[in-house]
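User: Sequence recovery, please. Input:
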């Protein structure tokens, strides 16, 4: 049989080697990357690398960790919106994907590369961690793995959440990449999709704070608390929403003065004897989710905020203002009611169809809507982004139970 032609271009070897050399240097000098298990991975034939997603430098760390193969990454379409990155990604053979939505074109491109004996790097959760633990993983990943029939290797990163978290900032410290051959094609044939999913979830699970406590890893940076005010919605001392402000290594509630400091161990510590601060972002997330979960038990539960509606334009990689309205989230769906290009609309997506909510904490929420493409909603209440993300992903998990 003739090998199928891939619609996704192969990486340009000279650029790939140059980019990998850069990634190796940065990973060793700034992030002290330690790689284990690389020698046991297949040197030829189709390989699907599945990696947990911790921070904004994960691509760099994985690029450095994979030796002897020119692997093609799968990235959200958002990454292609920067013209310079678009130029680079196309020449590195990066495959675009709609975040949190079924993307048949992306799946076909992945299968074509694998059938041609290539290597693919995929982040199954589709988003970086917000709290030092993994986000939701779409069960359809097991179907893709089963269908591909390629060798499957898992890459467990550690330290990536602390060095370059999604809320911003760059810290310098220790990182790890633990690589393992998880499935051979023969093993996949004998396993059910449920068994495949459970194994992948187990291999890619992580708890950054538990890892830090075990290893004693420390991190340096001028602004250790940068961006924390965007993911902390509620104050555990006064209960106020959206009053947090970050500066340097401190995060402070402007309503009651409750203050915590982030130290080299990346844990939060009360600044004073009367301050009430959770030690980790993970503990903070659990507490905030519990607050919202109690509210979601009510039939009239509703999160809503006025928003400006912006539509993405592919021709010049920009957003244009397209209307104003209200973004609402209840126990059934998330929906926008307002104007869009001069028309009054109501667009909704049910939670069971959305494994995660694409969002920039404290800035915007994005949804892909049929008929109008990618739409960005910028709320007046910035803390509402975090609240909606926590609530939506909690409600999605409930649909799987």
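Assistant: Recovered sequence (401 residues):
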């Amino acid at each position: 049989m003739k090998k199928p032609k891939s619609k996704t271009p192969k990486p340009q070897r000279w650029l790939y080697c140059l980019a990998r050399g850069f990634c190796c240097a940065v990973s060793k000098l700034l992030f002290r990357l330690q790689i284990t298990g690389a020698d046991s991975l297949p040197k030829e034939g189709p390989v699907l690398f599945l990696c947990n997603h911790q921070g904004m430098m994960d691509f760099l760390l994985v690029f450095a960790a994979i030796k002897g193969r020119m692997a093609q990454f799968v990235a959200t379409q958002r990454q292609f919106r920067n013209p310079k990155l678009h130029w680079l990604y196309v020449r590195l053979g990066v495959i675009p994907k709609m975040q949190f939505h079924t993307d048949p074109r992306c799946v076909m491109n992945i299968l074509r590369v694998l059938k041609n004996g290539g290597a693919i790097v995929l982040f199954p959760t589709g988003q970086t961690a917000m709290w030092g633990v993994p986000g939701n993983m779409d069960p359809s990943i097991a179907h893709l793995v089963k269908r591909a029939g390629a060798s499957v290797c898992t890459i467990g990163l550690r330290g990536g959440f602390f060095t370059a978290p999604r809320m911003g900032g760059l810290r310098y410290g220790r990182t790890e990449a633990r690589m393992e051959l998880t499935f051979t094609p023969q093993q996949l044939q004998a396993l059910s999709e449920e068994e495949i999913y459970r194994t992948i979830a187990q291999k890619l699970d992580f708890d950054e704070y538990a890892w830090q406590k075990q290893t004693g890893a420390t991190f340096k940076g001028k602004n250790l608390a940068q961006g924390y005010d965007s993911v902390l919605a509620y104050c555990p001392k006064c209960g106020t929403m959206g009053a947090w402000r970050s500066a340097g290594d401190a995060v402070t509630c402007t309503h009651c003065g409750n203050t915590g400091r982030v130290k080299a161990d990346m844990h939060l510590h009360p600044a004073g004897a009367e301050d009430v601060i959770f030690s980790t972002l993970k503990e903070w997330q659990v507490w905030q989710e519990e607050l919202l979960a109690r509210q979601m038990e009510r039939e009239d539960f509703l999160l809503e905020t006025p928003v400006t509606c912006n539509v993405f334009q592919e021709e010049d990689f920009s957003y244009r203002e397209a209307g104003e309205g209200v973004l609402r989230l209840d126990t059934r769906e998330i929906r926008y009611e307002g104007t869009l290009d001069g028309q009054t609309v109501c667009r909704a997506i049910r939670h069971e169809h959305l494994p995660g909510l694409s969002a920039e904490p404290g800035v915007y929420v994005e949804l892909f809507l049929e008929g109008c493409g990618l739409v960005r909603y910028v709320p007046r209440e910035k803390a509402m982004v975090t609240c909606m993300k926590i609530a939506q992903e909690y409600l999605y998990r409930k649909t799987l139970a």
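The radius of gyration is 21 Å.
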